[in-house]
Specification:
about 220 residues; single chain; Aminopeptidase; 8 helices; globular; binds coenzyme A; alpha+beta
Length: about 220
């Protein structure tokens, strides 16, 4: 097929996952989880939610400066414009978001996820993360990664429950102590890592969602 046949509209050409992997999330989504619909969007669509809710969600309202702050510079905006943005919406109102981007040619990095408090604890993000694995795998992506504060119990449980393995730990001036999680999308890579570094047999859990976690 000629390149011109598969090129997305110009506003989507800046997405790094499109350029590397031809991943067109707008064709793959929307997905629904009960009354919540997840749509593919752009960073500018996420900004109002971030501006209104992020300081409260992440406890940075008092701006106490525990970590190095990261203002929205032009470079940060351009970088963010390259990321994939997924909005969780109820009747067109944004109630949460998820952002991720390639960090190399075979790795998808999850940068941020946040839901309004009343939408948490319903496995919305777990189900979404489970669902993105298949399109990523089909596109040739080999691993899904993210950094999580070990004090963030829901995120820790979510990653372990989704079959992620701890592949490193790190301390930084930006986010403090973080656990680096990896979910291997190639069985062979998962087996190699477990054999080398994990003193535990793999769990034989079904990859398919349980009925109460189903989506459409
Ligand atoms: C982290 C967050 C995105 C998770 O989304 P979610 O859809 O609520 O997650 P889930 O409902 O799948 O919950 C994940 C696990 O944490 C558990 N959990 C949820 N809230 C919890 C709490 N307050 N204490 C302990 N466990 C909790 C859930 O029971 C689930 O575990 P299970 O699968 O064993 O039942 C959401 O809680 C949030 O927006 N938090 C604030 C922002 C944040 O911390 N973002 C992550 C850093 S970028």
């Amino acid at each position: 097929m000629a390149q011109t046949d598969i090129a997305p509209p110009p506003e989507r050409q800046s997405s790094l996952s499109w350029r590397l992997w031809n991943l067109d999330w707008e064709k793959i989504l929307p997905w629904s989880f009960e009354e919540v619909t997840v749509v593919s969007a752009h960073f500018d669509d996420a900004l109002p939610f971030m501006t209104e809710h992020y300081a409260r969600i992440f406890g940075t309202e008092s701006n106490e400066g525990r970590f190095l702050s990261s203002p929205l510079t032009e470079a940060k905006r351009r970088f963010s414009a390259e990321t994939d943005v997924f909005l969780f919406q109820v009747a067109a109102r944004t109630v949460g978001l998820f952002m991720a981007h390639p960090s190399d040619w075979s790795t998808y990095y999850m940068r941020t996820a946040a839901l309004l408090p009343e939408y948490r604890g319903r496995h919305l993000v777990s189900r979404f993360m489970e669902r993105i694995c298949e399109p990523l795998r089909e596109a040739g992506v080999e691993r899904l990664c993210g950094d999580v504060s070990p004090a963030n119990t829901p995120m820790m449980k979510l990653h372990v429950g989704q079959g992620f393995l701890v592949t490193s730990i790190a301390n930084s001036e930006r986010w403090g102590s973080c656990v680096h999680f990896t979910k291997f999308l190639r069985q062979e890579a998962d087996a190699v890592f477990r054999h080398q570094f994990c003193n535990s047999p793999p769990l034989n859990r079904s990859a398919s969602p349980s009925p109460e976690r189903s989506s459409s």
